[in-house]
Design goal:
Layout (H helix, E strand, L loop, with lengths): L2 E4 L8 H13 L19 H11 L6 H19 L6 H11 L3 E5 L3 H11 L5 E4 L12 H10 L6 E5 L2 H9 L3 E6 L13 E4 L1 H13 L1
Parallel strand pairs: 1-2, 1-4, 2-3, 4-5, 5-6
Helix pairs in contact: 1-3, 2-3, 3-5, 4-8
Length: 215
């Protein structure tokens, strides 16, 4: 392993539980009339691209500007007040540091949202990369993971990416990386077939990553 890359939402912080609740109860009802998507269709995508997807496939009732504003307002409350850090993340981070393996945070969330989580938990990464900083489409396309490997100066095939969504795992797989899936309650039924291995819960994920770092 030449680099360890983490998705943020649902992995480093447990934000997906809060996002899914907000999307079901407020965000999607506020922008759609009639049929609504399964949340796995949009989880992991950049939120501006979520609107484009909804507008192309469903009946939208609000502008993209209004949609973006609602997501930004919701994000501030989720990341500043509600999320918790992945159990065991500090130990994984220290093991990577001891092994000389850079650790990156690779997210579809915009830099402002990432900043909320970084500040709240005083987190440090060797690379923090938002899809907003990448020329190209977001997950499930591989552009953000290819850019992460390029910025760290490593071969994508020597990178391990940790993902909890179908879109995210597909993006890392398409970039040629080893993909470790993280499964908990919020994604119990999510298709993680693009992953090389799937870990059930934080303890199993910690064990998997520590073993890979030691080897």
């Amino acid at each position: 392993m030449d680099a360890l890359l983490f998705d943020m939402d649902g992995v480093v912080v447990d934000s997906e539980d809060h996002w899914h609740r907000a999307e079901r109860e407020e965000l999607l009802p506020g922008v759609l009339d009639g049929e609504r998507p399964d949340l796995d269709e949009i989880t992991g995508m950049p939120y501006r691209e979520i609107y484009d997807y909804l507008d192309a496939n469903y009946e939208t009732t609000a502008s993209k500007e209004a949609f973006v504003d609602r997501y930004d307002e919701t994000a501030a409350g989720i990341y500043r007040e509600k999320v918790e850090l992945l159990d065991g993340f500090g130990e994984i981070r220290e093991a990577a540091r001891a092994a000389g393996v850079p650790v990156g945070l690779v997210s579809s969330s915009p830099p402002t949202w990432m900043g909320y989580a970084l500040d709240r938990f005083d987190l440090e990464f060797d690379l923090v990369l938002s899809n907003d900083e990448v020329a190209g489409p977001g997950k499930p396309e591989p552009d953000i993971y290819a850019a992460a490997a390029d910025r760290l100066g490593v071969d994508p095939a020597a990178c391990v990416a940790v993902e909890d969504s179908r879109n995210g795992s597909l993006a890392a797989r398409r970039a040629g990386m080893v993909v470790v899936g993280y499964r908990v309650v919020h994604n119990a039924d999510t298709d993680l077939s693009a992953c090389d291995v799937v870990c059930d819960g934080a303890a199993e994920l910690r064990e998997e990553l520590l073993e890979r770092l030691e080897n």
